[in-house]
Amino acid sequence: MTVKETLDFSVRCQGVGCRADIMMEVEKLEKQAQIVPNPDTDTYMKAIAIKGLQENLQTDYILKILGLEACSGSRFGDAIKRGISGGQKRRVTTGEMMVGPSRAFYMDEISNGLDSSTTFQIISCIQQFVQITEATALISLLQPTPETFNLFDDIILLEKGKIMYHGSRELILDFFEDCGFKCPPRKGIADFLQEILSEKDQAQYWYHKEKPYYYVTADCFAEKFQSSNIGKELAKELAKSHDMVDSNENVVAFNYHDITKWELFKICMDREFLLLKRNSFVYFFKTAQITIIAIITVTAFLQTERNVNLVGASYIISSLRFSAIRFMTNGITELTMTIARLPVFYKHKDLHFYPAWAYSIPSALLKLPFSVVESFIWTAITYYGIGYSHGVKRFLCQFLLYFGLQQASTSIFRFLASVARRPHIAVVSGTLTLLFLFMFSGFIIPQSSLPTWLHWVFWFSPATYANIGLSINEFQARRWQNLSSANETLGHQILKSQGTEYKSYFYWISVGALFIFTILSNVGITIALTYLNTSSSKATISAQKLKQEGEKPSVSAQHESKSIDASTPNLFTKERMIIPFQPLTMTFQEIQYFIETPKAIKEKGSRPIKLQLLQHVTGAFRPGVLTALMGVSGAGKTTLMDVLCGRKTSGFIEGDIKIGGYPKVQETFAKISGYCEQNDIHSPQITVEESIKFSAWLRLPEDIDPHIKDEFVKLVLEKVELDTIKDALVGTPGINGLSTEQRKRLTIAVELVANPSIIFMDEPTSGLDARAAAIVMRAVKSIVETGRTIVCTIHQPSIDIFESFDELLLMKRGGQIIYDGPLGQNSRMLIEYFENIAGIPKIKDNTNPATWMLEITSTTMEGRLGIDFADFYKKSSLHLERKLLVEQLSTPPQGPSAIKIREHQSCDRFFQLKACFWKLSMSYWRSPTYILARVTFMVISSLMFAVLFWQKGNKIYNEQDVSNIMGFMYISTMFLGINNCSSVLPIIARERLVFYRERFAGMYSSYIYTLAQLLVEIPYILFLGATFTVITYPTIGYSWSAYKIMWYFYFVLCTILYHNYLGMMIMSLTPNVQVGAVIAAACYAIFNLFSGFIIPHPHIPGWWIWLYNACPSSWTLKGLLTSQFGDVSKDIGAFGETKALNTHLEDYYGFHYNQLNFVGLVVGCFPFSFACLFMYFTAKLNFQRN
């Protein structure tokens, strides 16, 4: 959804509250007092009090307040398809709450990713809103500037879960002075308050020089506050009882939702329809896929003159069952599509935007048209082409059954996804459910052949009713009413043999049962979404902190418990920099960047074909100089960094970029540079130390001694203060693992350990509190002192952090430079530059220069002064000086090339393979939901097969017994494939984000990484294959021969392997799991149709023999059946004749025992082929849109 659509949806869900009643009361009082209101104010207040509007004026107002007007038509985006910036996303989240009628706001770190000017503007608006409406706002901020801090009335200071201070902002410094600590000049009060609670920083603020300093603990501060006058007043106020009589009735809410249920339903229906249009590609892709499969099916079963006899009936039965299987397996794509939307649903549910039923019902209703279309397309293409009984009534009856089965299938899988809520658990539960539905539906084993104690399960499968309904609809037609040799109608004989001998009215019972399954599943979805919640977020702390709290650390949290003093000597001094590097300069001239104008922006008015995001940007980054890249949100800071680093995957770039005076070559540039992304992307199942070691192994030169590398890793861990949690798993953001602050430091450490000459950091202090930001910037500053070139985008620097930079490159919206030069002592040079511009207000004492700079260069100030700061800079002497400097640094040094860049790969391919295999092995081993889910499925499915096919392998007397064994091999091949292929999709998607980052850094070859991904699966697949063989081989009753056991294990192993590699290959071809699941479902359908079970090889039309030979499942079934029975010559009854078992296999299935070795070779080639394609497509395709 776009920004505006997101806020419009939020305001519609929250309603207008009591605004309408307040407006009526205001108008009444105005008339009594004869007051004429301001027309603009009156119009605005009336507009936001109107109920039921799809677009509210309040949305436009909030968009303007939050500075989101420019991107209101842009989509939110995700990790693959980049949308709006991180700061804009944070503002959208804030706007979702502000557009509603709420009177109490709880805002957690809303300034993350925002520049200080925007933060000040937002907090200022909230302050005015609170004061005017008498609302309540509790806001947590990490690095508020002094100007922003001064907007607050009260301050709550917390440490270790205890209140250090809770009272007026104006009295907080007096309280701490009474405790012996004083805030120095040019020190932000917020920074002072956070640092004073730290044992490492507290001593510098002690001002009783005549008294010895001692560390004041959090408990002492809490006790002093409680005994102070402020604390006593607070306790006294809290002790007062609440007066219910005099309370405003609007204070009490009696309903979770302010609008009617019908309105909620319409709002959610509108959103579902919008999302349906936005995701139309997936649904049209599914429709196109089912159309293609239907055409293939009808041509596979095509018969111009089909005989009305038992042979013709076998083709009809096979086609009907394949159609039913197709519609059942088509529902499995709902698993990934449903799970992908659950996080947003749970967020809205917690905010009481809408109840679960308002989400589930529209979602189900809007899938009806697609089910109708898909069912009709399938029926229209296959009905007359395959040769079913003619008649419009029977055509419509078959269509109705397919529609009911499609609805039941999709509803069941959506229910399973709502209960499981995790991809791997959902896939396993979905595949097991699908296996259960097929095994007990009569498709493979008739009800009469099931164990007596399991007959009742037959009626709990929707496939059962589809099978009965389809059979009744076809075989009770007039053409099947001729008498057979058994003195009964042919249709009755067929229905009897298939176990579907029921009266004609049972067709409508079947239809009703399918819709009952649909209704019950949707009710179950609503119940699951109502009462089940997502996993709570878990923070990661060190063992030391746990011990301080009196708890014993768990095994997973046994981290080293040493503390690093913030004032320790600089670890990254030139003396301790044990790995040499080459200082390098980067220059760039006349950089311009264009993108295609978004459709939403074009619709607003006349716009150029290309949208320019960077305009004539020129500058230089030098060794030993720490440069800040600043500007308001949307100015193009991250865009400039991406362009300079070569990370843009779309758009048009113009201009020159040089490294050390030579033109930049992207392949080698990646080896001498580091890029700390704004989004902290890491492998979730790897520890902190392992993440840094992996980067060091692959990015440092191979000739460096391993002990030196390990020492360097320790230095980096210490400097960014991650050594106390070095053994903690990184985890998944918002669910478990590291906190935002710890992830940010890990991102810096992973790049720093590569020993780069040039480092780019995109908002390294975003999401950190003042002390953590100071730690990071101290590390950055010490790195610069070694002679490295470092550039940081930064949003809300404190005075200390801002003045730790040497130079500043300041940009305005539109991607233009308005200042590029040194800051000077106490930012003097920057201040003098802007104060020399006529009309610019002088900076006040103790004001943060960064905040003042952004305020005076805002668009509003430009309009007020009638000046363009970009033009002013271009005409200034500063610009001329920088231009001359850039030209000077762009000239290569005399003599031989001064740049000695390492080879494209730091280490040999075998070492890269070992490192990648090690990392992926750790990641897989620590992914229990993935590994255990597959093992659980294998064990349960194997036991189910053992029970249902007990000793059928040594009880073969006729063709039906052969068909039962063939059915076991078919169903096991199909479901082993579905489970493993579907399970691997989210794993590859998860690791692919990390792969894109690491590949860009030049850590390894794409082919090496994908080879490691392929190899790491093999041990687990060996275990799965062995488990299946050990359970099923003796229980099915196969011959006890080592030769046959080895062939059985080989074919099972290859089947699991090629399905696993097929899933990996599909993900390498698709942008997300949803599209991958749709393509996988199409593959399952093709593999099933041409497996040789639905249609035996001799009966497949000649034009599809090539597809039969291309399907790995056909070779698997051929190998399994031939290896077990191809050499058995015992006589059996086959279609009224007596013939040898191996002869029957040759005549009916086309399986020849003398081809077994060739079959084994072909089956072994399939995993190899899929693996090669996976490696190739992963290397060549990049779905990350930047």
From TrEMBL:
Its main location: membrane. It is a multi-pass membrane protein. It comes from Platanthera guangdongensis. InterPro entries: AAA+_ATPase (IPR003593), ABC2_TM (IPR013525), ABC_transporter-like_ATP-bd (IPR003439), ABCG_dom (IPR043926), ABCG_PDR_2 (IPR034003), P-loop_NTPase (IPR027417), PDR_assoc (IPR013581). The gene is PDR3. The chain crosses the membrane at residues 281-302, 322-344, 365-387, 424-445, 505-532, 931-950, 970-989, 1010-1033, 1045-1063, 1075-1095, 1158-1179. It is found in: Membrane. Belongs to the ABC transporter superfamily. ABCG family. PDR (TC 3.A.1.205) subfamily. It comes from the Eukaryota. Residues 595-838 form the ABC transporter domain. It holds the Pfam family ABC2_membrane_7. Keywords: ATP-binding, Membrane, Nucleotide-binding, Repeat, Transmembrane, Transmembrane helix, Transport. PANTHER family: ATP-BINDING CASSETTE TRANSPORTER (PTHR19241). The keyword 4Fe-4S does not apply. This is Pleiotropic drug resistance protein 3.
